[in-house]
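[09:14] KT: can someone run the structure on this one? pasting the chain below
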Amino acid sequence: MPTTLNLATKLRHIPNFPKEGVMFYDITPLLEDPAAFKLAVDGLADAFGNEKIDKVVGIDARGFLVAAPVAYALGAGLAVVRKKGKLPYEIIREYHELEYGHSVLEMHVDAIKPGEKVVLIDDVLATGGTAEAAARLIKKLDGNLVGMGFLIELVAFPGRQKLAPHVIHSLVTL
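[09:31] RB: done, structure tokens below
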């Protein structure tokens, strides 16, 4: 089984995607490797294993790929934060800035019950705008955000500082 350090070798770097000047970190090689995928899921689940987590929230779209197995490992439910217009039921909405633009995130109004202990999971922490907007959605639903987990944290960006004082656990820092 690879060590946490080896997870970085399972990431594919794609320059200038989705636009010029952006470095995209492709997680599909990590997901395709059973040992690396297991290590990533276990690492994120273990970070919050001492808490009785009620819901794991995954962020559209790559966050879903990791949030679902983390929820399973924690014995928790799964809730999703989606891009605008993707959810069929009554929603709440938050606007946020991306590293390369802006977007709208939505969540079903009944995705989290008041007081539920929640962990937010996504693939990459960069500027923190997406996670911050998702955290605001969780708070609007009176969820108790225990912490956030990321496969990758890009330390050149201020995401960790922006999300303070939330507990943040990242498996790979670049």
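[09:33] KT: thanks! Residues 57 and 79 are 5 Å apart (CA to CA).
[09:34] RB: yep, looked fine to me
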